[in-house]
Amino acid sequence: MTTNHIDVTRLDELLKGFPSVDLNQLENLKISGISLDSRKIKKGFLFCALKGEKVDGNDFIEEAFKRGAVFCLTDNKNSTHLINTFYIHDLRKHLGVISSKFYDHPSNKLKAFAVTGTNGKTSCVSFISQIAKLLNSQCGHISTIDISINGKDLESSSLTTPESIELQKYFSEMVRVESSLVAFEASSHGLEQYRLTGTSIDTAILTSFSCDHLDFHKTINNYKKAKKRLFTELKPKNIILNIDNILGEEIYKELIKEKESCKFFSVSEEKDADFQYSFSRNNKGKIEVKLKTLEKEVLFKLNTVSRPLASNVICALAAFLSSGFNLDGVYQNLEKLTFPKGRMDLIKLDEKNKCYIDYAHTPEALETSLIELREAYKESKIWCVFGCGGERDKEKRPKMGELAELLSDFLVITNDNPRMENELQIIEEITGGMKEKKRCKIIPDRRKAILHCLNEMKTHKSKNILLIAGKGHEEYQDILGKKIQLSDHNLVKDFILSAK
């Protein structure tokens, strides 16, 4: 990826404010790039050595210098014996500011929308990008699925929220090609690890909140604190909060009490709010919306059966409206919005059977997806096939088993991304939440599990809806350290072709 011209290349300018650094030694030292990854170091680069969860960058300092690094910042005091290496306490916390300086503060030149939430981040970011296009504004977006600038996809994402250096690099490229807006996901991991520090945020959005990522955060309270950083420590100018969850309501009450100088607005289906909405379904099960904005009431349609996805559209609209955009010419085009891959994707199997592929991998997401399908297709039998990821929050496994048993007519438990865990142990923990395990069929091989459902549905006289949950857009499985090619989408489409 190319980058715009960098004005700040003197190392002493980048490191102003750090008392441990002797700036006099650095006056004539210029850098041409910056990286956390020693493999990406080139001549003239600054290497930043951080201790990670699995790899310690300090082990690669000598390699970085061999590749051409002229200087190294480290978070390990024991590395300072090396020439041109400075220790900075809590380097991770400061890396965003250093990176922003290096790229000439690119987020200051963009209207930045940062989206957090247990569920809904990816779709809300996508909707902001699409609404910007309807407004004839150039917009970049960074999401779990992809990174796109002005409608051109750059690459797939490896992290929901990129590391600080990469994040500022993407912002810089957006400025170079004259984007005026950017929408990006702020994950709890990214917030906890200070990846957004140094970013100027115009509007911060909370889409939802429920239990997740306790493998990383350990407690629900720690998870909440990580999410709240977006709205407190990062000082956004404008805040949009869905208050139909405990965290949104909590932050909103705190903002009122503290009389914060930023603007903040509530979004709700259930309560009185600045942006209050209600949903109904048309005869095809699709969503029709009545939205009370700050100025008037508007009606529009969305091409989805999912109310949670529709609520993410509301959050995106609220972000634009509260920022002063006129959306009068947008509402009639919202039915044309496309939804991110793996977010309740509909694949029609035949005249009586349909399949939905969804990224639902939390109890709340699985529950709402199944409820939406039950309401949209009252005359159909609901089938569900899902598993849970390995080396992730184990507490959600029995909860998801309990909900799937309650809300589906036919249930198959399979694997997801077991990673280094035993897939049968994961399945046993899922079924531990069920009352009647005999109602559930266990097929550990995901491919066989999905094909079993598709074949069985063909033989049933009833109308059938299959929900394939958990992996959504992903095109691989992570099993015992190997990435094995498997796309739920392609598997279903190949089945349809083979049946013709």
Notes on the structure:
The protein has 500 residues and is α/β, with parallel strands linked by helices. The chain contains 15 helices and 23 strands. The protein has helices at 11-14, 61-66, 91-102, 121-134, 164-176, 188-192, 214-217, 220-228, 246-258, 307-322, 363-376, 396-407, 423-431, 446-459, 488-499; strands at 33-35, 45-49, 71-74, 85-87, 111-116, 139-142, 146-149, 152-156, 181-185, 203-206, 238-242, 263-268, 275-281, 287-292, 297-302, 345-348, 353-358, 380-386, 410-413, 440-442, 463-469, 476-479, 482-485. The chain has an 11-stranded mixed beta sheet with strand order 8-7-6-9-5-10-11-12-13-14-15, with helices on both faces. Strands 16-17-21-18-19-20 form a 6-stranded mixed beta sheet, sandwiched between helices. The protein has a 4-stranded parallel beta sheet with strand order 1-2-3-4. Strand 19 (410-413), helix 13 and strand 20 form a beta-alpha-beta unit. Helix 4 packs across helix 10 (307-322), helix 11 (363-376) packs parallel to helix 12 (396-407) and helix 14 packs across helix 15 (488-499).
Identify the strand order in the major beta sheet: 8-7-6-9-5-10-11-12-13-14-15
Overall, the morphology is globular
Q: What is the mean predicted local confidence, pLDDT? A: 91
| Count of DSSP H/I helices | 15
Uncertain segments are: 1-8
Please describe the biggest sheet, giving its number of strands, its sense, and whether it closes into a barrel: 11 strands, mixed
Q: What is the rounded distance between the termini?
A: 43 Å
Number of strands: 23
Radius of gyration: 24 Å
Give the proportion of residues in helices: 25-40%
Structural class: alpha/beta
Q: Strand content of the residues, in percent? A: 15-25%
